[in-house]
Amino acid sequence: MDMLLDGFQTALTPGNLLFAALGVLLGTAVGVLPGIGPAMTLALLLPVALTMGPDSAIIMFAGIYYGGMYGGSTTSILLNTPGESSSVVTAIEGNKMAKSGRAAQALATAAIGSFIAGTIGTVLLWVLIPSVADVVVKLGAPSYFAIMLLALFAVSAVLGSSKLRGFIALFLGLAIGLIGTTTGQARLTFDQPLLADGIDIVVVAVAVFAIGEALWVAAHLRRKPLEIIPVGQPWMGRDDWRRSWKPWLRGTAYGFPFGALPAGGAEVPTVLSYITEKKLSRHPEEFGKGAIEGVAGPEAANNASAAGTMLPLLTLGLPTTATAAIILVAIQSFGMQPGPLLMENEPDLVWALLASLVIANTLLLVINLPMAPLWAKVLQIPRPYLYAGILFFATLGAYSVNFQAFDAALLLVLGVLGFAMRRFGIPVLPLIVGVILGPKVEEQLTQALALSGGEVSTLWSEPVAVVVYVVMAVLLLAVIATAFRRPAPAAEHHDEKELVER
Amino acid sequence: MTIDRSQYLLAAFLVAVGGYVLYDASTLEKGFADQPVQPYAVPNVVGAVLVVLGVLLAIATARGDVPEAEEGEDVDLTQGTDLRTVGLLALVLVANIALIDWLGWAITGAILFTGVAAVLGSRTHVRDLAIGTALSVGSWYFFYVALGIPIPAGILDGVL
């Protein structure tokens, strides 16, 4: 409890409050802007953030994270174009509501639901993180190795629609992670001294997120203006409140646990929440035509899972979303060791972050609810400027890491890879997670075997490790089973599309 | 059955990368006695799996697997890929890489912004250049003065 109050003290200093507000505004702006998500924004801001001091940077990142989630719902509702897979479900009912003149209510239930879910989720974090961290610290290298394998496997096989493509992304990431001389010998450096330390993860992240996206959009640029539904001030009537509060709570109950799992992500809980609300609703006939429950539930689930993501991130150092992956990179770049010892070594930072999540959430509601009409205007920025700006800041960010034209060249090469990944439907997250976790997996394996004198059986000598391997085996069987049941790999994504069209 | 032939290119790329990782691993020497995990152990696994994934992708492609290209707000997938725009963008980025050490960010950044805007269809070149220059000089000063990151000034050394 004292730690939490200390955390609030750090987060509530005027300077940090300013960074939180800045983060919320930036996050919402980029969530609203097409083509830019929170992960890309964080990647672009990493070089600047590294000069700010860890507290302020992490607090600002928390604001951007939540702001980005909120901004995403705005485009889903006003444009019917979900920027991220987790807001696909919001678009189904939200855009229908907007089209029937209820954009204000849809935006309001999304914002208030996000606030409630985010706050409950953060309080759960306060309660859970200390005890989970206590358990995690006792884990040995074998357990840790097993958990990281599970995370790599889950991120590749469970998220996304094509398992094959998930693994392609993961192993490309692992290959990039091999580059360097960590083992004492140069691996994959092409005799380039500039590659001796490996490729800076900042450069990798900026390249696949920002450059890849800009090139991809350039190749398919929509030459006609977007149709934007005008919004007034978001507000809700009595009836809207009555119909929203239960979906908010149920959505939260779905979202948090899924976010907290190593195989988390917001896709599953948002869909589950949508289906539940449709079943429980007293107005099932409204679903597909703009039912407010269909916005309230999934939006709450979305934000609760964002909060849940922080649990594996802060206790294990495992990122389960692209945004969490970049926050992990930031923690690493500040010279801190993410993972089991973070809580022990940097309690001030962790509690400041946990406190700032609630602050970011509150600011989000207070600042953004009145500003919705303004955000709708942000959508009208001319596209040439938008993407010129992204490439400009991406290049600046990568260049400012070491002031080498070589980094800008790497940026382009990896950016072309990012472009190809979008063309071939290969997910970005497994690649990033592979780059981050690959070297750590090798390190934990080395540590486990060094302690046992090279005896391989040590890998399943801890109960936690055994449980994790069993979970992996079950997941693997499930993957194989679905692969046999549905030979057409594209079939899975189809469900989601159907949902959207229904 | 439609077959996305360009997906074979990706499969070939995966096999090539995997093959190179394996080759690179074979050039590594046995590590020290206290290294229980040999330096070539992990690369061997990664390289081999990449080759297998490449083969699997080729088989899936032949069986009619089509990739699901990523959609987005500004993306219109109904038209074909506009490779000319992508090529020109890449050219602008290459120009930036070639010139940045010599001309410095304050100049190449402005060229980068203006070039990209022009490639993407902006016709107000003078205004673009003005915005680009403001951005690049402004960001140079912001990094140099506010953040304390000394971005090399290039030929403008002493001017800025």
TrEMBL record, chain A:
Chain segments annotated as transmembrane: 12-36, 106-129, 141-160, 167-186, 198-219, 311-331, 351-372, 384-402, 459-484
InterPro entries hit by this protein: DUF112_TM (IPR002823)
Keywords: Membrane, Transmembrane, Transmembrane helix
Keyword Transmembrane annotated: yes
Pfam families reported in the protein's UniProt record: TctA (PF01970)
Any coiled-coil regions, as ranges: none
Residue ranges of domain DUF112 in the record: 17-432
PANTHER family named among the record's database cross-references: TRICARBOXYLIC TRANSPORT PROTEIN
Name of the featured protein: Putative tricarboxylic transport membrane protein
Organism: Nocardioides thalensis
TrEMBL record, chain B:
Stretches assigned to the DUF1468 domain: 10-152
Keyword Membrane included in the entry's annotation: yes
A Pfam family hit: TctB
UniProt keyword terms in alphabetical order: Membrane, Transmembrane, Transmembrane helix
InterPro entries (UniProt xref): DUF1468 (IPR009936)
Chain ranges passing through the membrane: 7-23, 43-62, 83-99, 105-122, 129-151
Protein name listed in UniProt: Putative tricarboxylic transport membrane protein
